[in-house]
Amino acid sequence: MRSIEPKKEPTVRQIHVKIDGAECDVDAGKSILEVAAMRGISIPTLCHHKKISKTTSCFVCLVKDNKTGQFLPSCSSELTNGMDIDASGPEVAGIRRSALDLLLSEHAGDCEAPCTVACPAHARVEEYVRQGKQGQHLEALRIIKERIPLPISISRVCPRFCEQDCRRNVIDKGAPVAINDFKRLAADLYYESYLEELPPLGPKRVAIVGAGPAGLAVAYFLRLHGVGSDLYEKMPKAGGMLRYGIPEFRLPKGLLDKEIAHFEKMGGIAFFFGNELGENLSIEDLKQRYDAIAVTVGSWSPSSMQTAGEEYAEKGIRWERPSSSAAAIPPWTASAPPSASAVLRSSAATAAASMKCRQKRLRLNRLSRRVSSLSFSPHPCGYARRGEGRSSPAKK
Questions:
Q1: Which of 8, 104, 144, 317 has the fewest Cβ atoms surrounding its Cβ within 10 A?
Q2: Which CATH number fits domain 114-190: 1.10.10.10, 1.10.3720.10, 1.10.1060.10, 3.40.50.720?
C-alpha cells in the first residue's frame, strides 16, 4: 500500500530591497505601501484610507525609484528584487504636495460646514446642532464648550455669523437654522449641573491681568490642561464688557454671575478684584510669583462717532458703566447717532428709558426703515417693542 505524503506548502520567495536607505528582505508580491507600513514608514494615502470611500489615482502616495528616477504610486506598485525606494525625501514630499494641490483645485464640497467657518470661535456648529436636534443637549453643551467658555452670555449677545452663512438660507429663502437657539437652550438647561472632565492641577500657575471674556477664556483653557490661574481685575466684579458694556436688558447680570461661578467650581481658579495694572499691580511683581503672565485688559476706550459736537457727549462705554454699577444717572438727554449700528442704537435708547433720562432721541436719518419703526419704551420683557411707530416719549 502506497503511503500518501502530506502536501507541502509552497514557499514564499523572498526579495531584497532598500527603503529610505534601510535594507530588508520581504515577501515577493507585496506593494511598496504595505512593506513601508510594516517597516514603520508612513506614506500618506487617500484611496487606501479606512475612513475614506474608494477613489482612483490620488497620487499622494507617490515614492521614487532611485535606480530609474521614476515616481511610482506605492499603493499599486509591487516591490521587485533589488529595488531602492525613497519614501520620505524632500523631492517626494514636493511631488505629493503638488498632487494634493491638483485634487483640491477641483474640490467643490465643504470640508467644514459654512456655519463652522463663519463662527469667530470656530465651534463645531454642525455637530452641536445635530446633537440638539436629537435631544442630546448635554452632549451639545460639551461640544460648545470645547471652543466657547461662556455659552450663556454669548448666546444672548452673539451676532450669529453662522446663521448668515447657513446653507438653509439658499433652500428656505433666507430662513436659516436657529443655530444660536440650540446653543442657548443647551447652556440654559445644563450649565449648572455640567462639569468638564478635569485633569489634576499641576505645579505651575499663571497670573491673568483682566477678568473679562479674554481673561476668563485663558483661565478656562489653562484649567482644562491642569494649570491653575489667578485673575486680577480692577473692577468690583468679573466679566469685563459683558458686565460693564452690555445693558441689563440684553444680558441679565444674574446669568453672568452664574456663568462665572462655574470657574470657581472647576477649582484652581481664583479672582482678586480692585487690582489695576500700573496702579497697585505690576508685571515685575507678577514675574516673581508666577510661571507665566497673560495680559487681557481689553479695550475700554470708546471709538469716535465722527460727528460734530461729540466732545460734549458722554461716550457709550462710559455712559453704560454707571448703570451697571447701579450709580445715579442725571436726567440728561440721551441721543444715539446715525453712525451707530441698529443694535447699538436700540440698546442705548432702551437703556436710556430704563434709566429714566429726561429725553431719549434717535437721529433717524440714514437709518433703515426697520429701525425707524422701533418704539423704545421699555417693554415688560426687557426688549424694545417692534412695529409700533415712532412714538415720542413723554417728558417728565
A1: 8
A2: 1.10.1060.10
Contact partners, residue 12, CB within 8 Å, separation at least 6: 27, 28, 29
The separation between the first and the last C-alpha atoms of the chain, rounded to the nearest angstrom, is 126
Lowest mean pLDDT among 24-28, 64-68, 337-341: 337-341
* Residue in the structure block whose three cell numbers are 464640497: 109
Contact indicator for 119, 148 with CB cutoff of 8 Å: no
Q: Which residue bears the cell 440684553?
A: 250
The answer as to CATH 3.10.20.740 being correct for domain 14-105 is yes
> CA of 200: how far to CAs of 98, 148, 195, 309, in Å?
45, 22, 14, 57
pLDDT per residue as tens digits for the range 318-328 = 655 544 444 44
- pTM for the whole structure: 0.62
Grid look-up 470708546 returns 302
What tens digit of pLDDT does each residue of 239-285 get? 998 998 888 888 999 999 999 999 999 999 999 999 999 899 999 99
The whole-angstrom separation of Cα 19 and Cα 13 is 19
Residue in the structure block whose three cell numbers are 484610507: 49
The answer to whether 205 and 227 have CB atoms below 8 angstroms apart is: yes
Rounded Cα distance between 205 and 219, Å, is: 10
Across-strand partners of 17? 24
Contacts of 108 (CB under 8 A, 6+ apart): none
CA distances from 166 to 131, 142, 148, 163 (A): 17, 22, 19, 5
Rg (alpha carbons) of the chain, rounded to whole number: 32
Cβ neighbours for 77, distance < 8 A, ≥ 6 positions apart: 31, 32, 63
For 302-327, give one letter per residue: b (16+ CB within 10 A) or e: eeebeeeeeeeeeebeebbbebbeee
CATH 3.50.50.60 fits 205-295, yes or no: yes
CA nearest 224: which of 201, 193, 253, 254?
201
CA separation (Å) from 325 to 166, 237, 247, 360? 38, 10, 11, 21
